[in-house]
Amino acid sequence: QVQLQESGPGLVKPSGTLSLTCAVSGDSISSNYWWTWVRQSPGKGLEWIGEIYESGSTNYNPSLKSRVSISVDKSKNQFSLQLTSVTAADTAVYYCARGIVGATASSNWFDPWGQGTLVTVSS
Amino acid sequence: QSVLTQPPSVSGAPGQRVTISCTGSSSNIGAGYDVHWYQQLPGTVPKLLIYGKNNRPSGVPDRFSGFKSDTSASLAITGLQAEDEADYYCQSFDSLSGFYVFGPGTKVTV
User: Fold this and answer.
1) What is the average pLDDT score of chain A?
2) What is the C-alpha to C-alpha distance for residues B31 and A123, in angstroms, rounded to an integer?
3) A103 touching B, CB under 8 A?
4) Does residue A72 have a pLDDT over 90?
5) Cβ–Cβ under 8 Å, residues A85 and A67
6) Residue B57: closest CA among chain A residues belongs to which residue?
7) Helix or strand or coil: residue B26?
8) What pLDDT score was predicted for residue A101?
9) How many CB atoms lie within 10 A of CB B84?
10) Which of A108, A109, A116 has the CB atom closest to B45's CB atom?
11) Is B89–A45 a contact, with Cβ atoms under 8 angstroms apart?
12) N or C: which end of chain B has fewer CB within 10 A?
C-alpha cells in the first residue's frame, strides 16, 4: 500500500523559504507517476502547486511559478517542495500526492494523498 | 476564483439522492479533459472518490457516481447516509491556464 508522508518546519518567517519533503513508501518514485504538491488554505479550497516526474521534468502553477521549485531524490525515494519569499497568504496545509496518468494527456488524478502538514507564515 | 464552479452547499435527508454540479468551460471540461471527484471528511485528507469516466477506487461504494456532459460534470450520491457529510471537490485540467484546477468545493449536509 502506497503511503506518502510530508515533513518540514511548521513555522516560516515572512520573506523566508518554505521547504517540505514528501517520503514515499510502498512504491518507487521512479514509477510512471507525477509526484504532486497541493495546498489548502485554512477554511478554503484546494490549490494545485506543481508536479515532478522521476526524470526531473516539472510543471508549476503559473501563479506560483516564480517562487516554487520541486525536486526529486531517487536515492531516498522522496520529493521536495521549496517556496520562496513567503507571505501570510502562503499559510496553508500542504499535501503531497501521487498523480496518476490518465488515459489521455493532462487527465491525471491524485491518489493517495499524504496526511498534510500545516505551514504557518508568521514572524 | 476557480475556473470550475460548484454550489457551496447541498443537503438531503437520509436515503435521498443528491447531485453536486461542477461547471466549467471550453478550456477544461468542454475540451474533453476528465473530471475527478474527491471527498474530504471533516478534519481529514482529501480522498479520491471518482476518476475518469465514472470509475471508483476500491472501497468506494457504488452509491457514488460521476457524469459529464458538454462543459459540466456532476457527482450523484444515492441512498444518502450520515457518513457522507463532507466537502466534495471536482478536479480537471484547464488548457487556458495550463494547470490542474479544483472546484471550490461543496459541503454536503445530511
Assistant:
1) 94
2) 44
3) yes
4) yes
5) yes
6) A111
7) coil
8) 86
9) 20
10) A116
11) yes
12) N
Q: Using one digit for the tens of pLDDT, what is the confidence trace for A19-57? A: 999 999 999 998 889 999 999 998 788 999 999 998 899
Rounded to whole angstroms, the Cα distance separating B88 from B101 reads 14
**Nine-digit cell string for B1:** 476564483
Residue whose C-alpha is closest to residue B46's, from A40, A3, A38, A113: A113
Contacts of the segment A25-29: beta carbons below 8 A, 24+ positions apart: A25/A77, A26/A1, A26/A2, A27/A2, A27/A98, A28/A77, A29/A54, A29/A72, A29/A74, A29/A77, A29/A78, A29/A79
CB burial class (10 A; 0-12, 13-18, 19+) of residue B7?
middle
What pLDDT score does A43 carry?
77
Q: What is the pLDDT of residue A106?
A: 80
* A2 conformational bin, left if phi > 0, alpha if psi -120 to 50, beta if neither: beta
Note whether B52 contacts A109, CB cutoff 8 Å.
yes
- Across the interface, of B2, B33, B99, the residue whose CB is closest to A59 is B99
The predicted-structure confidence for B31-55, as pLDDT tens digits, reads as follows: 999 999 999 999 999 999 999 989 9
Residue B76 bridge partners (DSSP): B19, B65
Question: C-alpha cell of B5?
Answer: 464552479
* Amino acid sitting at position A104: T
Could A45 and B36 be called an inter-chain contact, meaning their C-beta atoms sit closer than 8 Å?
A: no
pLDDT tens sequence across B55-104 = 999 999 999 999 999 999 999 999 999 999 999 999 999 999 889 999 99
The per-residue pLDDT for B44 is: 95
